[in-house]
Design a protein that fits this description.
Blueprint: H1 15-18, H2 24-32, E1 38-39, H3 52-70, H4 80-90, E2 102-105, H5 108-119, E3 125-129, H6 134-141, E4 146-150, E5 152-153, E6 156-157, H7 162-165, E7 171-174, H8 188-201, E8 205-208, H9 224-227, E9 232-237, E10 249-252, H10 255-269, H11 274-284, H12 288-314, E11 320-321, E12 329-333, H13 340-349, E13 352-353, E14 355-356, E15 369-373, H14 379-394
Parallel strand pairs: 1-13, 3-4, 3-7, 7-8, 8-9
Antiparallel strand pairs: 2-10, 5-6, 9-10, 11-12, 12-15, 14-15
Bound molecules: 4'-deoxy-4'-aminopyridoxal-5'-phosphate.
Residues 43, 107-109, 133, 135, 175, 180, 208, 210, 237, 239, 244, 249 line the site of 4'-deoxy-4'-aminopyridoxal-5'-phosphate.
């Protein structure tokens, strides 16, 4: 008995909702999803790395052996054995992380939302790198903070600036490993100085580390978490080492904060899917990641090298770029007069895409920057796409 011609609702969105925007990148990705486009725009891992068979076997095993538990509601903090696995993987070198410090979340993106929800009031100072991960800026924006951009150089953010700008801030959001969007890595001395500066200021320090395991040269650097487990909030994810479609990440923090996050998570979604948590545990519990991660590293390292070589071959000397030691991204700085947003329109006409840099700045965007991802495009196509971009830029000099 459907009503005849009901009056359409005039939606009165909340003030919070009114300032929500779609991510600039998601809009670009819609255009670049066309198969004929060579896209360096995505932040997606390469599907070639997804261990489909391993996941299928893990789903089968969990459903056959523990189906009734896997299909039931579960605790908000997450599946115990997986939390214990994570706690163990982060312990060592004199640091002991216990499962009570681990909260499972539906992708680390949810962790960012929950952290801002429990730590940030309207107008609170939130410190971010210049530039920073767009998804974090978006997640924090909902809570209407005052973003303070911490100055950075090629080694990441500058801890000696924090004494001036960090007082009274609610949190500092840092990406020490192969940062999204720049690909840069913070050296050990800088990490120590950062952790010390935050401890001095009593400033909670978020270490977002989805790319840490994807290191192509040398050994992974020590985590901030291990330097001060009482002051650092660590965020990890299975998206880049297993698959992003399972939406599984974790927050590791001192227990009083975890309890508060758990309350916020309970209100948001009760808990992260029991089935996926049990499947991931089943897939990794016997050391699978120690064989699997090196295969991802090899693929991405080769593609990173191909992109760096192509940039050297085809780009004019007035363009500079980062030389990442891991992760998925290279960051380019063009001559000041070139606006990468406009360049993108021309690039798409040539069937090549990238992400303009401006959306990654919380304040004062630098319009002559852009991000290239090297992980989803094979080396021959990388060379072809970089050559086209190089020609477009050279024509503007
Ligand atoms: N942090 C950073 C720096 C990221 O690049 C991403 C994904 N692009 C996330 C967090 C979110 O990852 P997840 O899939 O775990 O939600």
């Amino acid at each position: 008995m459907k009503m005849e011609n009901p009056t359409p609702i005039q939606w009165q969105f909340s003030e919070r909702a009114q300032q929500l925007q779609s991510s600039a990148i998601r809009e670009i990705l819609k255009v670049t999803a066309r198969p004929e486009v060579i896209s360096f725009a995505g932040g997606l891992p390469s599907p070639e790395t997804f261990p489909v068979e391993r996941m299928r076997a893990a789903f089968d095993s969990v459903l056959v052996k523990q189906g009734k538990v896997a299909l039931q509601y579960g605790p908000t903090d997450g599946y115990g054995p997986l939390r214990e696995w994570i706690a163990n993987s982060l312990s060592g070198d004199g640091v002991k992380i216990v499962p009570e410090q681990v909260l499972m979340v539906s992708g680390s993106q949810q962790g960012l939302d929950l952290l801002a929800k429990v730590l940030v009031d309207e107008g609170s100072k939130v410190l971010v790198e210049t530039p920073s991960y767009l998804g974090a800026l978006q997640a924090f924006s909902v809570y209407r903070p005052e973003f303070v951009s911490v100055p950075t150089d090629e080694n990441g953010l500058l801890p000696d600036r924090l004494d001036d700008i960090g007082k009274g801030a609610r949190l500092l959001y840092a990406l020490p490993n192969f940062q999204n969007p720049t690909g840069r890595t913070m050296p050990v001395e800088r990490r120590i100085a950062l952790v010390e500066a935050c401890a001095r200021l009593g400033l909670p320090l978020i270490e977002d580390d989805p790319y840490g395991a994807l290191c192509y040269r040398g050994e992974p650097l020590p985590k901030l978490l291990g330097m001060n487990p009482n002051g650092v909030i660590y965020m990890g994810s299975f998206s880049k080492v297993l698959t992003p479609g399972i939406r599984l990440g974790y927050v590791v923090a001192p227990v009083p904060l975890i309890r508060k996050l758990e309350q916020a998570k309970q209100a948001a979604d009760l808990h992260t899917a029991t089935l996926t948590q049990m499947v991931v545990y089943e897939a990794i519990k016997d050391g699978f990641l120690t064989e699997h991660i090196p295969t991802i590293r090899k693929l991405y390292a080769d593609q990173c090298d191909a992109m760096l070589a192509a940039l050297t071959e085809f780009f004019p000397p007035s363009v500079t770029w980062t030389k990442p030691e891991g992760g998925m991204f290279i960051w380019l700085t063009l001559p000041k007069h070139i606006d990468s947003m406009k360049l993108l329109d021309e690039a798409i006409e040539q069937l090549v895409a990238f992400v303009p840099g401006a959306p990654f700045y919380a304040n004062a965007p630098e319009h002559n920057t852009l991000r290239l991802s090297f992980v989803t495009v094979p080396p021959a196509k990388i060379r072809e796409g970089v050559e086209k971009l190089g020609k477009l830029i050279a024509a503007k000099l």
